[in-house]
Amino acid sequence: MVRAVVCRTLGAPETLRLEEFPSRVLKPGEVRVAIRAAGLNFPDVLMTAGEYQLKPELPFTPGVEAAGDVTEVGAEARGVSVGDKVIVKMRYGAFTDEAVVTRSQLTPMPSTFDYAEAATYLAGHGTAYHALIDRGRVERGEVLLVHGAGGGVGLAAVEIGKMLGATVIATASSDEKLAIAKSRGADHLVRYDREPFRDAVKRITDGRGADVVFDPVGGQVFEDSMRCMAWGARLLVIGFTGGIGSAKTNLLLIKGASVLGVRAGEAVRKNPELGEIRLRALLQWAEEGKLRPNISHRLPLEDCAKAMRLLLDRKAIGRVALVMD
């Protein structure tokens, strides 16, 4: 029997249930993967609450990324073999101990990662890559302000921004989160409750401001970011865990600034070539030891609701993984 987390009613994480189903026979072109770990992302929480842009038909299993071992290869599935260690990319359905997918949903695991690291890599680091490289076009020597730097995508942005040669200012809500950001390359650390970050950015940059702002928080953080931007700044909208912010058009005009929406998955669906370039780079950097997810919590599949609560309560530092062994 296959275990899976099932959402039958939209709402809080506690409404999710672990259920069992029989394995199904593979269709041509399909591959069976024994899932060893799955990564949690904030969109998983939003999706189960019915607040995400993608709204699967009920019932459904949440989860967009996992990692495991190929256990069966169907007819017409090429380029994959039983025993391969793979990352599994899904729009939903990853919180299970067995997945049936197509070959196009599989990516070889970096040899430097364990299953949990592989299952928490591509979504967060892929978003950071798309934001900073495809959308923000960060250049060496620029100042990058990363909000929510203790979160999964925030830490990924710190890592990639530093690798691109930017001066990285990391903001977070605790010393513990900022310490991890520093270990991943942040040059300057700002705690929200100790100094208004807009003042800190101006102090650090001698009044010039940030060239690129990476914002997964939104709300007041987004609005205050417009008051510490440099000329020609790019404000990257990653998400809105802190609410929906309003863009002050006069500030954007005065600074010659741009607000850019970031949807890494949709960008690949619109332009698959972008995804191929991104994937090659991320896998290469992982193999070279330049990038690695920080996983603060590893919980069993049956504790999915508790894992989601870690995200909602801002207790995770980096990533949270569900592990099947």
From TrEMBL:
It comes from the Bacteria. It holds the Pfam family ADH_zinc_N. Residues 11-322 form the Enoyl reductase (ER) domain. GO terms for molecular function: oxidoreductase activity. InterPro entries: ADH-like_C, ADH-like_N, ER, GroES-like_sf, NAD(P)-bd_dom_sf, Zn-ADH-like_protein. This is NADPH:quinone oxidoreductase.
